[in-house]
Amino acid sequence: MEQAEISPRSVIGGIVAASSLAVSFLLWLVYVHHASADFAGRWMFLPALNAVLNGLCAIALCVGLYFIKHRNRKAHRTSMLLAFAFSCVFLISYIVNHALHGDTIFPGHGSVRTLYLSILASHVILSIVALPMVLTTFFFSLTGRFAMHRRIARLTFPIWLYVSVTGVVVFFFLKAYVY
Q1: pLDDT tens-digit readout, 137-164
Q2: Model confidence pLDDT, tens digit, residues 96-119
Q3: Taken in order 28, 44, 109, 37, is the CA torsion positive or negative?
Q4: How far is CA 120 from each of CA 63, 99, 105, 155, rounded to the nearest angstrom?
Q5: DSSP code string of 47-97
Q6: Which of 13, 82, 115, 154 gives 20 to 30 Å between its CA and that of 163?
Q7: Using the 8-state DSSP alphabet, how is residue 43 labeled?
Q8: Whose CA is closest to 45, among 101, 85, 116?
Q9: Quick one: which H or E segment has residue 160?
Q10: Exposed / middle / buried, residue 80 (Cβ in 10 Å: 0-12, 13-18, 19+)
């Protein structure tokens, strides 16, 4: 019996639909959900853990880029899977943190607030874009469609790296003014 090839259009459509649901849930969690006061002061290590996971993801992405530039595909694949794993664990930790503690308001004023909000806005917008791009890039790689993988990875990589790095930057802004 022949196995039917999976249509890239249907998979990408599924990725976009799942990403839309995930982003909708995260936006609801951060901006609508009200955390219980029972968890105030508990699990306060989560923001730092999120920053560490974002930093490790950024490092794994850069190492993966180094390996592919030197044509070491096996090491590149390992690095990228590690970056993906760090991002997945980050997402779980991020969800738990916001479910328990809610949103954190930045108390700074003036130009530092403008800078923080600019970085945060670009981080949030690009993280929404990055999710389906990362999943699509992985789909093309894991199904052996390397020409498409390379084409989309050239866009995915800088966005994913920017989101990872600015996640750490946002943490340090909040650490300086809130935590």
Answers
A1: 999 999 999 999 999 999 999 999 999 9
A2: 998 888 888 899 999 999 999 999
A3: positive
A4: 25, 19, 12, 20
A5: HHHHHHHHHHHHHHHHHHHHHHHTT-HHHHHHHHHHHHHHHHHHHHHHHHH
A6: 13
A7: S
A8: 101
A9: helix 146-177
A10: buried
